Amino acid sequence: MPATTPTTIPVPPLSTQAERLIELGVHEIAGLPAAEIRTFAAAAQAVAGGAGGEGALLAVHPDRAPASALAPLLRRGDKPGFVVTDMPDVDLFAPLDTVALPDAPLYLLTCLDRGDQLANWSPNEALPDLTAKARTPLLLTEGVHWVLQQPAVLERNHCFMTIGSRLRKADGALDSRTPAIWISNGTGRDGRERRDAPKVGWCWANNRHTWLGFASATGRLSGV
């Protein structure tokens, strides 16, 4: 079957996204009143076209809602999401220097793309291509937000990496691991009970995988 085109899997309206985050308790994780999320979403939704229109994703700043807290909220069928056991430092993965995050607890991501066309590229190959096309790679937490709002974006053989998040070592060099979100096969340390569960893991920066694209957006906005 052909790869699913991300633009055919729209995210819900921003007001619906706000209610989804509140239902999951993300506002409590972030230390935000539910009303603040609703107000932000309503203001953005009221803007015809532009960032507040169709297709924008509502995200909580990773400083407020880290990946370790968000990943267990993912669901695929009756299977909750999880972070792989050899990624205990998942919350230390921070935005690349080239990724500008709004200085606000809530913001929007525009024109999401799963990056299927970059499948079988390595992260080190994909990043310059995204940059040349004026696209910004998603952070791990942003990728989790996307799947929370639209689980259909994560499908077997068409999962994605979130290479906007990287870990810096003590000497300032980038750790070779690059985060990704995919579906567990229930093998190895995942455990058979986790087969088909959404999985936050990592791949090497120089490795290629035919089933992993590179999620990106055209920008991030703190208001509309």
Structural descriptors:
3-stranded antiparallel beta sheet; 14 strands; 224 residues; 5-stranded mixed beta sheet; 6 helices; single chain; alpha+beta; 21% strand; disordered N terminus
Question: Gist?
Answer:
By secondary structure, the chain is α+β, with helices and mostly antiparallel strands. The chain has one domain (6-221).
What report would you give on this structure?
The protein is α+β, with helices and mostly antiparallel strands and 224 residues long. The protein has one domain. The chain is 23% helix and 21% strand. It has 6 helices and 14 strands. The protein has helices at residues 14-24, 26-30, 34-45, 67-70, 123-132, 140-149, and strands at 57-60, 75-76, 79-80, 82-83, 94-95, 106-110, 136-137, 159-161, 165-166, 177-183, 198-204, 212-214, 216-217, 219-221. The strands form 5 sheets. Strands 4-11-10-8-12 form a 5-stranded mixed beta sheet, with helices on one face. It has a 3-stranded antiparallel beta sheet with strand order 1-6-14. Strands 2-3 form a two-stranded antiparallel ribbon. α1 packs antiparallel against α3. The longest helix is centred in the first third of the chain and has 12 residues, at 34-45.
